[in-house]
Amino acid sequence: MAFKVCIISCGMIANEAHIPAYQQFSEDYEIVAVSDINEMAARDTAERHGILHYYTDAEKMLTEQKPDVVSVCVPNAFHKEYTIMALRHGANVLCEKPLAFCHSDAVEMFDCAKQAGKVLMACQSMRFTPDRLAAKKFIDEGGMDEIYYGELSRIRRRGIPTWGTFHMKKISCGGAFVDIGVHMLDALVWLMGNPAVSAVSGTIMQNHKNELGSLKGSGALTGKVHNKRTFDPDEMDVEDFSCGTITFETGAKVSFKVAWAANIPEASDIMLVSKKAGLDLPSGRILFDERGERLLEMKNCPYDTPYFGHMYLTDNLRKVLKGEANPIVMPEETINVSKIIEMFYLSARLGREVSAAEIG
Ligand SMILES: NC(=O)c1ccc[n+]([C@@H]2O[C@H](COP(=O)([O-])OP(=O)(O)OC[C@H]3O[C@@H](n4cnc5c(N)ncnc54)[C@H](O)[C@@H]3O)[C@@H](O)[C@H]2O)c1
Hints:
Layout: E1 3-8, H1 12-24, E2 29-35, H2 39-49, E3 53-55, H3 58-65, E4 69-72, H4 79-88, E5 92-96, H5 103-116, E6 120-123, H6 130-140, E7 147-155, H7 169-172, H8 176-179, H9 181-191, E8 197-205, E9 241-248, E10 253-259, E11 267-274, E12 278-281, E13 285-287, E14 293-295, H10 308-321, H11 331-350, E15 354-355
Parallel strand pairs: 1-2, 1-4, 2-3, 4-5, 5-6, 7-10
Antiparallel strand pairs: 7-11, 8-9, 8-15, 9-10, 11-12, 12-13, 13-14
Helix pairs in contact: 1-10, 4-5, 5-11, 9-11
This protein binds nicotinamide-adenine-dinucleotide.
């Protein structure tokens, strides 16, 4: 029998990524209902995807439908509230990124999942690019020894998201760093084997709030959004540029820059260095000492959609629920990432490096 799925919130990511990802595996998932505080968004989404029920009250949906799986696709500030609600209603949860903005919230959410005996996974959908998957395999097979330095660069030329509330701190909790930077942080800790963070130094800036780009270029990868809200630059109170450094307990240092908008080349780059070898992504170049360099063996993505990462996640979740696999995004990785996010924004506010000991 298929797992019953409910979707909380019916915006871009629910319509373009989550619902198609469950429907791809229709032998194992049946989406029984969707909810959104905006009734039109909920009704249109249900009609668009042939889903029988829609609600404006997520808790009523959970009570009546008793789902096995819930996707939490609300804006960032509401991730914790709805995730805990769904877990307490006995559902396993895929929660959109960033799962949480502080260490204690992430710990509370995973504790709640543990108490309920349910799976909670953050939708870190950008781990699954061919280069990152190949890099993980190379590192896990001993291709690198201890990584001592890294660089992350995630740059859009003009890509402030304009369709929702990404630019408003009270709803999204932060800007570029937490929106697209979180994918880089997640890939980093995953590739590095999840070393504990020991210090973060960060800076945030806002430079381009009146210069907007295309929907595709700002993260709506299919070019389609749903339930669009009018963008007012005067409401923007989050960063469009961020940079800084992370120090791990291993002694490794990683420098990063993340921008929704900047006059430098577009990038989604990760560079990692160890004594044995260095890695450059997405090029896939592995650099050695006197042995020169070679390319990672990358496999093509099996899913023909810009949101292929959500396909990997829903495929993994059904296997986890059948006892055939472990979650591909582990709680301790997401907790580590949440701690880095908390330390980053605290550092930016205080104007100095923040140590892990300062976080509760
Ligand atoms: N994994 C990825 O690559 C990826 C990409 C884009 C967005 N996201 C994440 O998905 C989430 C949603 O993004 P989106 O692009 O779909 O946003 P969106 O603005 O398109 O949709 C948000 C929806 O949430 C509803 N909503 C707002 N407040 C609510 C509340 N309190 N309770 C219930 N519903 C509420 C709105 O009515 C709207 O329909 C965000 O957390 C974002 O970071 C992830």
